[in-house]
Structure formats: C-alpha cells, structure tokens
Amino acid sequence: MPKKEITHEPFEIRDCALAAIATGQKAQNLKELRDNIETVVPGSIAYHFWAGKLRPRFDDPEFNNDFAAWSRHALHDKILAERLGMIDPTSFDKREEMKQELLDIIEERLDESEHIPWTSADQQFYFITSQTVVFSARKTIVKPAELVSVVPEMTSSSIFYHFIDARRRTFGHIDDFRAWLYGFEDGYRDLCDILSNVDPFFSTLPELRQQLCEIFIDYFGKER
To answer: pTM of the predicted model, to two decimals?
Structure first.
C-alpha cells in the first residue's frame, strides 16, 4: 500500500563548487605536518579528506586523502601512508575526533622513526581550506518516489553537495536525502536505514550516484 504523505517542503536539487583558499600553513617534514594539523582551521582537514572527490582524475588514486598521498609520494613513507589511508572520516561523530586520530597516527610514526622524514622544498604540503559555492540545479521534487528519476541526472558535484557536504549542515550530520525523508509522516525510516549504511568515502562520486540509484529503484519499485 502506498505510503501516506503530508504537505511537505519540496526538495530542491542544488549543485556546488569548492573555492580553494590558502591557509598560509605548510609542512616540509612529518613533525611540521603534525604541528600544523594541531593548529589549522578544522575546515582544512575536511578539505584534504573530501575535496579530492571533485578534482578531475584520470586514474584510480592509490589513497583517498591528501595526507596519505603526501606521505607516500613526498615523504616516501609507505607505512605511514597506509595507516593514514585507512582513516574513514564518516566513522567520526566530530571533526576533533578525526583530527586526534590523525595526530595519534603521526605521533606513533614519529616515535618509530630514527629520523624525521623530510621532503624537498618543491614538494611541501600546503594546507588548504575552502568555501562551498552553491547554486540551484533548477529542479525540485515533491514526492520521494521522484528520486528514482532525478538522482541519475544529478551531476557528481550535486551528489557531493547532497550526500557529503550535507553532513556539516544538517541536524544529526546526515545527508540531505535522509534529512528530507525524515520529514514525511512515517519518515521513510526503512529507506533512511538503508541510506545510513552507504559509506561515501571509499567510492568515487559516479559510483556513489550509481549506488543511490540502485537503492531508490529497488525501494520504490517494491513499494509500487
């Protein structure tokens, strides 16, 4: 039986771009990286975990965050890179917890190393933060079942905005789809539970879009 719906605010599809902003902080060795992580604005740490998803890529990146990639390719420390590469930012409720995990891993590696790993001046790590520029995709939906036809047409940056960037904006730090679906009378809680199990960090944005498409097609197909 179809779900009963109440009057509800439409879901406006939006798109975004990240405007990179230099912080003025940089590191040439592992100790400097640790010291700067302690003092840099929280948005910079988030940028170095997530912004890579929006950068044009022509190959499959070995690491999913900038700290791990720099450790591998600039410091040539494969052990540290692998440890940093295993950090999943979605597993932390607060940014401070993720920051502390970074610091703990780096501190452990410094304790293990006889010498502080350095890189050349032209391979320094530059701390970047960003401002999200948001604009309308000129598409709105009023019924959850419309997600079936809308999500496949969303750009990668729109998927980023609604499923990743949303976590810093919404109550409970959830994606925009769940935030919207919870507003219906029965909340589509079973669908929200399915969406809550999607980890966006270790997938590309096209892969994430495909995963969401399959979830909505499967769910609303069964509903009908």
So the answer is: 0.88
